[in-house]
Every structure is written in C-alpha cells, then in structure tokens.
UniProtKB/TrEMBL annotation:
It comes from the Bacteria. The lineage of its organism: Bacteria, Pseudomonadati, Pseudomonadota, Gammaproteobacteria, Thiotrichales. Keywords: DNA-binding, Pyridoxal phosphate, Transcription, Transcription regulation. The keyword Metal-binding does not apply. This is GntR family transcriptional regulator.
Length: 475
C-alpha cells in the first residue's frame, strides 16, 4: 500500500469512528501534511483518493467535507436447505468453472477465483529467499522431510497461532499440501463412506467436493452472513441424525464472510461435548481480518482435543505454494496415517522458504499491508454494487479477506449469467456450487483481492438486469 493510501485509511477510520462527522470540514492539506509528517503532495493525494472512494467531497473555494454514506446494503438471507443428508453433486459445474481458466487471454477477469493478490510487492522477498535457500541448503531442498514436515515451519506456525489464542507445540502440527489436503485427511480419519457430515450452507465448494470424493453425505446447516452457522438448527440436526463430524469456517467464512461470535464458539463446543462429535475448523482466512486483534479460533476454546484446526498460506500468500497445516489434537495418529498414504511428504523448499519469510518479519508486514488494501477494495466494490446492481440486491459485509457474496433479486440464474459474461471476458462463481442441494441459483461470489473495474460491475449488472426482466416475462 502506498503512503498516501495509508494516510487515507487513517482518515477514513476517523470518519467511521465519528471523529469527523458528516458535512464537517476536514483539516487543510497543509495541516494534514504536518499532522501525519508527510509532504503536501502526499496529503493531497490522500484526499483525492478519499474523494474517489466517496468518503469526502470537495467544495469549490471551501475545502474537503465528509460525505454522507449510502445506507448499508441488506445482508443475504439464510436459506432453508434440505433437512436431511444429501450426496453432493455439482462437480460438473465446478469442473466447468475450473476449465474456463484455460484457453482465455490474459485480459480475462476471473472474479470467480479464490486467489489472493500475488502481485503484492510485499511478496517479492519470498522469491529472493527461495533463490538463496537453493544455494544455502542445496540438496536438502530436494530431500523429503519428516512425515510431520519441516520443524522450522512448524515452529513459525506455532508462533503465529498465538494471535488466534491457539497454543501449539511444533510437534502438535502436521504440514500438508495446502489446506485442501488438511481438510481431506481430517475427514478420512473421522469418517467412512456413507457417513453424515454437518456443513454450513452456503459452504465452500471445495469442501463439498471433498465430501463427494469420499462418498460422504452433507447435512446442510443454514448460516447467516453476520454470525455464521445456526446453532439452533445444528442442535436439531444432532438430535435427529448420526453426524460424524462438523465442518465449520468460524472466521471470515467462505463465501458469506461471516464470523462466529465467541459465545457461539463456546456453545458449539459444549454441544459437541454432549453428542461426542468432532469439529474440523478451517481457519484459512483468519489472518486476513481487517481489524486487529483477529478473532480467537474455535480451537483456542477447546480443552479436550476435539477440534481439528486446519489452515494454510494459500490465501494470505499464494495458492501456488501449496503449503497448509493441521493441528489434529486427539486424532493425530489417524491423521498422520492418512497423510502417509496420501502425499507422505510436503515440498521441502517451499516449507523452508515460508518459515524464513515469517522469521524475518516479512509475513506480518505482508498481511498488514494486504489487509488494508483488501478493505479498500471491499468498500469500493460495495459502493459500485449498491449504485449499479438491480434494486433488491443483497450484499454481504465481510470484515476480512477478499470475497463477497451477492444475492440477486427474483429468479436470476447465475449459471446462465456466467455463460453470458464470457462475451465480456468475465467469470463469476455461481451460487449453486456452494450447496449440496443445488440452492442459491440467484447468488454469486466475487473476488476483490484486486480492485474490480467499474466496467466489470456494469457488465455484470446489465446482464443480471436483462435476465431478471426475462424471468418476469409471461411464458
């Protein structure tokens, strides 16, 4: 993030906190430059940026004033999914989504992806570290490490986990080939074919496809875009069905962006104690919470080793690194076995590189910078959606990460919307793939790790409005 953006972020936070009121005049450019110890031109750039982001307005021969904000968009509503376990489908739709990544020009806009901003300048030191490691460590970079993974990385993971209230010893951790493997081997250790697993609805389609591959049944539990999984609905499900595991993303849920309050985490743990049900916690977005300190993990409240904690560096750094990890608790022996019969080892070079990246302080600097950028991107995108999308559109309000869940009005089919967007060189993630039962056909997920162009928002809006009009025409 550039210096003027950092100054703009501080002013924006003061506006949000009520330090500067609507229609109040901001300090002059010279005063701001002195207050923040920056040049006059930097202070001016900060104000221009805030004007572009619709936080302030410039009045001729008067100065800059705080602008009234649009009313917050209504949140997407929880959907009532099927009240019985289902086999997961939608692989055809997921495969079609992934196959579109090939064969298109570089200017194709993949708003469907879950990728972080890999062009962030704060990631550049990682490339130098990898280059130096190949010289310093030599053949070790080509040598498989232990089943648990490189101790250097496990030590750093244990240190980072403290930010979420989680106390781990390096020996409590197993490194994996991404979070996807961590989740898959955890499920393999806990279940057998035909078992029932409780999942949030909507839920990350990657998790759904793990269930499909393992021949497990998904019991969808409705989730709210603010506080996550409905514990009342979960308790009813636990009473009725033989649930073998609960899959949950408590912090910055994908795709809703919800965060489970601490009191709900405590209640969930007490509930699973009564039913003797293990929990698999996916904390992949936890470090990308905009405001610090970040929320505590569910694992941090666990005193019985019942919660299996999974995460990775795919969302904070790059998915191509394929480095994740799992803290298996009481299920360590079974999960180690699943790791052994799967990939057996995790790539040594990338483990060592990430460990060094964290140790030298680059990781904390990187996530601090991208958190600010993602928040600015969210605000800009939300403002455009409220301005240009069809009336009645509902928009999530994530407090971290870089994905937005959008509920369109009426019977807009986002699978069909996605097909029409190909002509605009745009791809979104249609809502149907986030459900085992094929719900959320009028919803979509958008990635804003990089600023979303206004032209893309207008194109999606226009196609959505046309589909809405077509759905209202008499048959």
């Amino acid at each position: 993030m550039k210096l003027y953006q950092s100054i703009a972020e501080k002013i924006r936070e003061r506006i949000e906190q009520g330090y500067y009121q609507v229609n109040e005049k901001l300090p002059s450019i010279r005063t701001l430059s002195q207050e923040h110890d920056v040049s006059v031109s930097t202070a001016q750039q900060a104000l221009l940026f805030l004007e572009k982001e619709h936080w302030i307005e410039v009045r001729a021969k008067s100065g800059s004033y705080v602008k009234a904000q649009l009313a917050a968009a209504e949140m997407p509503q929880p959907c009532r999914p099927a009240q019985y376990p289902l086999k997961v489908s939608q692989w055809k739709e997921v495969r079609a989504l992934r196959s579109l990544y090939k064969g298109h020009s570089d200017d194709f806009l993949y708003l469907s992806s879950g990728m972080s901003d890999i062009d962030a300048p704060t990631l550049k030191p990682l490339l130098k570290i990898m280059s130096h490691l190949t010289i310093r460590e030599g053949v070790r970079c080509l040598t498989p490490d232990t089943l648990q993974g490189a101790v250097e990385l496990r030590e750093q993971i244990a240190r980072l986990a403290l930010d979420g209230g989680t106390r781990l010893h390096p020996d409590d951790i197993i490194t994996t080939t991404g979070c996807q493997e961590a989740l898959a081997i955890s499920l393999q250790a806990l279940t057998k074919a035909g078992d029932v697993v409780a999942v949030e609805s909507p839920g990350f389609y990657g998790l759904m496809q793990i269930l499909k591959a393992l021949d497990l049944q998904a019991l969808e539990i409705p989730a709210h875009a603010d506080d996550g999984m409905s514990l009342d609905a979960l308790e009813m499900a636990l009473d009725q069905w033989p649930i073998k595991a609960i899959l949950v993303i408590p912090t910055e849920n994908n795709p809703l962006g919800s965060t489970m309050p601490d009191e709900n985490k405590v209640r969930l743990l007490k509930m699973t104690q009564r039913y003797n049900t293990p929990i698999i916690e996916d904390d992949i977005y936890g470090d990308l919470r905009y405001k610090q300190p970040r929320p505590r993990t569910l694992h941090s409240f666990d005193t019985e080793g019942r919660v299996i904690l999974c995460s990775s560096f795919s969302k904070t750094m790059s998915a191509a690194l394929r480095i994740g990890w799992v803290a298996p608790g009481r299920y360590k022996e079974r999960i180690e076995h699943m790791k052994y019969i799967g990939t057996a080892n995790t790539t040594t070079l990338t483990q060592l590189a990430i460990a060094e990246f964290i140790k030298q302080g680059y990781y904390e600097r990187h996530v601090r910078t991208v958190r600010q950028q993602y928040r600015l991107n969210r605000d800009q995108l939300t403002h455009m959606l409220q301005t240009y999308f069809p009336k009645g559109t509902r928009i999530s309000a994530p407090r971290g990460a870089y994905i937005l869940w959008i509920e369109l009005p009426g019977d807009v089919d986002t699978l069909l919307l996605n097909k029409r967007l190909v002509q605009h060189k745009i791809q979104i993630a249609p809502g149907v793939i986030f459900s085992a039962s094929g719900k959320y056909r009028n919803c979509l997920r958008i990635n804003y790790a990089r600023p979303v162009p206004k032209s893309a928002v207008l194109a999606i809006s226009q196609e959505a409005k046309e589909l809405l009009a077509e759905s209202l025409m008499p048959q």
